[in-house]
Each structure stands twice: as C-alpha cells, then as structure tokens.
Amino acid sequence: MAKGAVDQKINRLRRIEGQVRGIAQMITDDRYCIDILHQVQAVKSALAKVESQILKDHAACCVSEAIATGSAAEQKEKFDELIDLFEKVKR
Predict the structure, then answer these.
(1) What is the pLDDT of residues 43-63, one digit of tens each?
(2) Integer Cα distance of 12 and 30 in angstroms
(3) Residues 52, 89: contact at Cβ < 8 Å?
C-alpha cells in the first residue's frame, strides 16, 4: 500500500479519535442529547468511509494477488475471509 494512502487513513482515524473524545466531553458537559447523537452519527459515517477504503485496498491488493496466482486454495481463502467479514457485519 502506498505511503500516501496509509497516511490518509491514519489522519482520518486520528480525526475520528478526536471526535470521539469530543463526544465524551459533550456527555460530561451534559449537552443536549440530539447534539450528541448527531456527533455519534458523524463518527459512524467517518468510520464507514475508512472501512470502505480498507476493503477496497484489500480487494485491489490481496484479492487480486490471490486471483493472479491461479491458486484455487488461495482464492478460496480470500473469498472466505470476505464472506466471514460480511457475516459479522450483518450481526
């Protein structure tokens, strides 16, 4: 993975980390519940974007490499990993 792509994900995660600390402070300050919930939704959305980018990177790198090898076992392993991931998301 290119260094720029890694830096971009780390920067996003650090921003999310700051948002979560902000939410904790909002709760401590007894802020209006709807305002807190809006911030929680923003964090969830930001995490979903990071998750999506990591999944795209996985498909572009790991899965495509497994396909390129021609190894049915490697391809099945990567496919099974994705299925397991999607099953966890549904829970």
Answers:
(1) 999 999 999 999 888 888 888
(2) 27
(3) no
